[in-house]
């Protein structure tokens, strides 16, 4: 099944998976892994603006350096295709220069290997991995946003854990980017407020994470199913995409959406093992429903051909493993 999904109006992903902007989840290494497998990582902002921008830069351009003299270099022109680059690549790295003989990029053998091993990789028009970053809505976040833009960030997530807030004036230069708003959106009214402010996508959920206690402690939040339904209903007519959290405890949950690794497995393993497992689960779910792609699945939902049914606790128990003396669930 084709899992291509729109992240924003300008960016599509071949895998509908996003890693959360949490300091225990997403920095450059996770963002690189997510992008290689067709998703995208959102770098957290629980750090200085300079540190966050450098993490984005690691994803976009890496940390390669070249110390060889120009006259000793074998170079390729800007715009060279990977196949052509592979034919002329003699050393471990191939500098790419423009018409003025200025260095614009470097291709390494590892780049060619990754292009072969990760055909679903999320890349921009310059063949660099896609990367997102989170910011707040305070005045000093404008400085953070400026550094992120200079680092080449593709998507910015606005994070503010309050029911309503005013989005600060977005710089004109930033309008070239796709803006993903992560503002704990749970109502159609919030969605309208943010869409009118110019955001390009919405992130749905308040207090629904597997280890989140916001609804219990602060008496603030909304059931995730209701949040997704209300926001999606408004966003669909406004032609705005949205992402949302779901806690996974079964195979079927992945058809709704996949969240992250921290609440899904007891012992966290390699993301390169876990994400393919999630992808396969979503694909199998689409096939069982009879949808060849996620876009078809959405069309079936909006047309009424596909509907959710409320299942009793007895039905849920019957639908899982039961009646055995002992059972150990293995994810992969």
What is the share of helical residues? Answer: 25-40%
Spans with pLDDT under 50 lasting ≥5 residues? 247-254, 256-264
Mass-distribution shape: globular
Radius of gyration, in angstroms, nearest whole number: 22 Å
Q: Topology as H/E string?
A: EEEHEHEHEEHEHEEHEHHEHHHH
The top-level CATH class of the largest domain is: Alpha Beta
Largest sheet composition: 7 strands, parallel
Give the helix tally. Answer: 12
Distance between the amino and carboxyl termini: 20 Å
Query: What is the overall pLDDT average?
Result: 77
Number of strands: 12
Protein name: IMP dehydrogenase
Catalytic activity: IMP + NAD(+) + H2O = XMP + NADH + H(+)
GO cellular component, one term: cytoplasm
Pathway: Purine metabolism; XMP biosynthesis via de novo pathway; XMP from IMP: step 1/1
